[in-house]
């Protein structure tokens, strides 16, 4: 029976999430335009990235404030985040401004944990931990710094960007291991004992 009080998936919060997905290719084109060498276009890419990242906060606040949380939103929101971050990571690596190993480590962790969460839905919804939220902030700040036209800025800016990215990678790996540990415990607790075995 359908809950009459359930919010429609066609709401403002999900609209912001869909908008974040739609701007990903625009961001990618701006980032890769002229190999990322035009300062104006590069700053435009940074602006799109920042605005898209901010919509993640906006849609979450709207959904909670006005009781617009839906299954569609729960599905699309992490996908939108991964697409935006993935485009930034891959684009920067294509431009030779970010080591491919950094991109691979972060993307493997993000995709792996997302898939794991889907498999755990039969047992429990695995919420984002404090470490996971810190990871997202560090990744966003690090990518924002790397999206700056660093070749036109003082050298210390690149050093700061590298330090923040190193912290983001470390927290990404550590929180990924934490999620795997939690998933193992959940799966073990859900496994039937001898009395439930056939």
What would you note in describing this structure?
- The structure is a single chain.
- By secondary structure, this protein is an all-alpha fold.
- It has one domain: Up-down Bundle (Four Helix Bundle (Hemerythrin (Met), subunit A)), CATH 1.20.120.1760.
- Helices cover 74% and strands 0% of the residues.
- The protein has six helices and no strands.
- Helix 3 packs antiparallel against helix 4 and helix 3 packs parallel to helix 5.
- It starts with 11 loop residues before the first helix and ends in an 8-residue tail after the last helix.
- The relative contact order is 0.11.
- The mean pLDDT is 85.
Strand and helix layout:
Blueprint: H1 12-32, H2 39-65, H3 71-94, H4 100-120, H5 130-146, H6 155-190
Helix pairs in contact: 1-2, 1-3, 2-3, 3-4, 3-5, 4-6, 5-6
């Amino acid at each position: 029976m359908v809950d009459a009080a359930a919010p429609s998936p066609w709401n403002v919060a999900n609209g912001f999430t869909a908008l974040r997905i739609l701007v990903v290719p625009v961001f990618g084109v701006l980032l890769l335009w002229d190999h990322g060498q035009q300062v104006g276009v590069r700053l435009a890419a940074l602006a799109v990235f920042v605005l898209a990242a901010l919509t993640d906060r906006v849609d979450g606040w709207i959904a909670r404030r006005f009781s617009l949380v839906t299954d569609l939103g729960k599905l699309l929101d992490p996908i939108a985040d991964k697409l935006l971050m993935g485009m930034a990571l891959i684009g920067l690596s294509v431009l030779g401004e970010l080591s491919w190993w950094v991109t691979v480590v972060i993307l493997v962790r993000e995709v792996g944990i997302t898939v794991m969460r889907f498999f755990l839905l039969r047992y429990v919804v695995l919420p984002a931990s404090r470490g996971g939220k810190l990871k997202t902030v560090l990744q966003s700040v690090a990518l924002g710094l790397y999206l700056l036209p660093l070749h036109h800025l003082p050298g210390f800016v690149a050093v700061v960007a590298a330090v923040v990215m190193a912290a983001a990678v470390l927290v990404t790996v550590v929180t990924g291991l934490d999620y795997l540990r939690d998933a193992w415990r959940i799966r073990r607790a859900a496994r039937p004992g001898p009395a439930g075995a056939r």
